[in-house]
Specification:
1 helix, eight-stranded antiparallel β-barrel, 12 strands
């Protein structure tokens, strides 16, 4: 599946960069504020953790209003767990390679909104213990090695510089673990990614070939 994922991503990138239409390539980076939603499990409560993402996004300009783009990201997500005093004492960090095809609609000269889907592959996963040490869990695979979700975005643009805020709502249950309740019975628990991004970037525009 990983090879198929990378092949599709490569084909999309090549199609954009070799297109005879007006295209652009954007680079961006910024802040992830991520968490995970757990269902049917109340033994602990999660809090958000902060990390970063890197983005490379070729785009295709249909007209003055609509733009199609595919955002390739290295993105570190996860969640934190607090103790009884609501102090963070553990974290899970998931590093993803994301491919995010999306449509942008320009509301105004300086503002646009976007909607898309997120396909993701896990490239690494770590757990931070109470002593502050990161322990790699990639071989254990505590989560499924792919993810899927939807994304909404608000974007501001000035010339070639842009900033944006986006939210990724994970739709796939990513947990690989079995959980037990207070009676030591296995319970069906689901885990879903949630991620807020705040980013800043620059777009390189290329004129249409004749």
């Amino acid at each position: 599946m990983k090879n198929q994922f990378l092949l599709i991503a490569s084909c999309i990138f090549f199609a954009f960069t070799s297109s005879n239409a007006q295209v652009g390539i954007s680079v961006a980076s910024g802040l992830n504020v991520s968490n995970c939603k757990f269902t049917n499990y109340e033994a602990f409560s999660t809090t958000a953790r902060r990390d970063y993402f890197l983005s490379l996004a070729p785009s295709y300009q249909f007209n003055e209003k609509f733009r199609l783009l595919v955002d390739f990201q290295y993105s570190r997500k996860g969640f934190a767990i607090g103790n009884n005093n609501n102090q963070t004492n553990s974290e899970s960090r998931y590093s993803y390679l994301d491919v995010i095809p999306q449509i942008e609609y320009k509301l105004h000269r300086f503002f646009a909104i976007g909607l898309g889907v997120n396909y993701a592959l896990v490239v690494n996963e770590d757990i931070k213990d109470e002593k502050g040490n990161w322990v790699n869990t990639k071989k254990i695979e505590t989560i499924k090695q792919s993810d899927f979700g939807i994304i909404g975005k608000i974007k501001g643009e000035y010339k070639n510089i842009f900033c944006f805020v986006s939210y990724n709502l994970g739709l796939k249950n990513i947990t690989n673990l079995q959980y037990v309740d207070e009676n030591n019975k296995t319970t069906a628990v689901s885990q879903f990614n949630r991620n807020l991004q705040v980013g800043l970037g620059y777009t390189f525009n290329f004129k249409k070939n004749k």
